[in-house]
Amino acid sequence: ILEEAAQIVSNDIPLLKLLSEAYLKADLPSAALQTVQKVLNLSPSSVETLAWYAEKNLELKQQHEALQALRRAVEISPEDTNLQVHYAHVLMQSGQRSQAVRLYLQLLHSNQLQLEDIILSAENLTQHGEVDLALTFLQTAQKNSRFFASDDQYQILLCFAKVCQQVGDLQSGLKYIEQALQIKSDSITEPYK
Question: How far apart are CA 155 and CA 165, in angstroms?
Fold first, then answer.
């Protein structure tokens, strides 16, 4: 049935994407890879397609192809910081640590990251042993006036706590949790003052 579907939907990107998912779930990696490649061939300059292609190649343990697709997507859309954070993470996963750290530092100094990008970067960096750089990301966010809202500060403090706990610094982790709770309780009682 899947082979018949592949013949029928040969130029329909949404259906080919669904078909590739079906192949993945049916544990047919060769067919999934061929279908994923068809999608890319139909839309080779679409940032969305390149990001999707990279994601599927990672699922198929094809890191080199994923990196190439992400590199191309970043070249097409350099303003997409979330895409760059994802690219840096995949670089780190593939053992290209110095290149990943360089990209993370560029992103940090660009001052264009959204809070979710900063938190994702800090989590990725911590996961790969770059704790000092992760903490620098969070400290920079904490001082940035774009993130002075209590909800933003709350999220930053929770990420600080998570990083501290992951590296075994439970005392500091608890300190950040207490600060986050204080912000949360202040924001709840604020309307009643």
Answer: 15
